[in-house]
Write a structure and sequence with these properties.
The protein has a 12-stranded antiparallel barrel with strand order 1-2-3-4-5-6-7-8-9-10-11-12. It has no helices and 12 strands. By secondary structure, the protein is mainly beta. The chain has a single domain (about 60-269), classed as Beta Barrel (Porin). It has strands at about 60-70, 75-90, 90-105, 105-120, 125-140, 145-160, 165-180, 180-200, 200-215, 215-230, 235-245, 255-269.
Length: about 270
């Protein structure tokens, strides 16, 4: 086992570190010239000139969840989820960052920060290659940091306007500090994502990711998420998200499974 777990003698409040961004590629545009056998017509007038195609826009969203109780039980839970997606030509770019902090009776019970970036290049309508990087900090699970990076190949099993289902996989490298131990190891990444839009105002989605260490299959991590969203108007929506992380070899004294239910108000642009 490459990841030993040292006994945790006391709990410290870890300083959250900043998220990192993934550098991604930009496609070069080409100009095609076609020579006609007949003389070229006069230049089109402004009334007949073809309309310019607007550049692709970012699909941005920020979701904020906040729960506060006082009286017989004093607790607070704050969650913040940000997403940025862009598609143009044969390219797809997905960025995201999550933050959560919670206390019950002045005892910290949640402190996580996560960021990821993934770039996809479409070889065909359904096949694509990707490069992905992710970072995680989870104070309660005693994970000071965990970086995962690697390339892979994906395929859209379903690719429709209302419904998409994709699977992807490839090698990855994990570098982490769990407890007092800092280790690095190679892993295989197998993942899938499903999304269905009932209408322009309601959708559901689900993701699953499996990360086994290649030379020690007893050491693996499973990340899962399921969510639903309903729009209030053109800019605001309500979302409910269930996130689950299962670490088969957690830090000593920690549980394998971490489950989180988030209800949030979401702004979209």
């Amino acid at each position: 086992m490459l990841r030993g777990r040292a006994t945790v003698k006391n709990h410290h409040t870890y300083k959250l570190w900043t998220t990192f961004a993934a550098a991604l590629l930009v496609a070069a545009s080409g100009l095609i010239r076609v020579q006609a056998q007949t003389p070229a017509p006069d230049a089109p007038t402004p009334d007949t000139a073809p309309a310019l195609v607007p550049p692709p826009k970012w699909d941005l969203s920020v979701a904020l969840g906040f729960t506060l109780t006082e009286g017989n039980s004093d607790s607070i839970l704050v969650t913040l989820i940000g997403r940025a997606d862009k598609k143009w030509g044969d390219h797809e770019l997905h960025l995201g960052a999550d933050f959560a902090y919670g206390e019950t009776e002045d005892l910290k019970n949640n402190e996580t920060a996560r960021a990821f970036g993934q770039y996809n290049y479409l070889f065909t309508e359904r096949w694509y290659g990707y490069s992905r990087a992710e970072a995680l900090h989870d104070a309660i699970a005693d994970v000071e940091y965990r970086f995962t990076i690697g390339p892979g190949v994906g395929y859209y099993i379903i690719k429709r306007t209302q419904t998409t289902l994709s699977v992807e996989g490839g090698p990855a490298f994990v570098y982490e500090k769990v407890g007092h131990d800092t280790t690095g190891y190679f892993t295989a990444r197998i993942a899938e994502r499903f999304e269905h839009k009932f209408s322009e105002t309601a959708r559901v989605w689900q993701t699953l990711e499996f990360l086994p260490q290649v030379d020690d299959l007893d050491n693996f991590i499973v990340n899962a998420e399921i969510g639903a969203e309903a729009a209030l108007n053109a800019s605001w929506a309500i979302s409910v998200i269930l996130q689950d992380t299962y670490d088969n070899v957690p830090a000593e004294g920690r549980e394998e499974n971490d489950l989180k239910l988030i209800s949030a108000l979401k702004w979209k642009h």
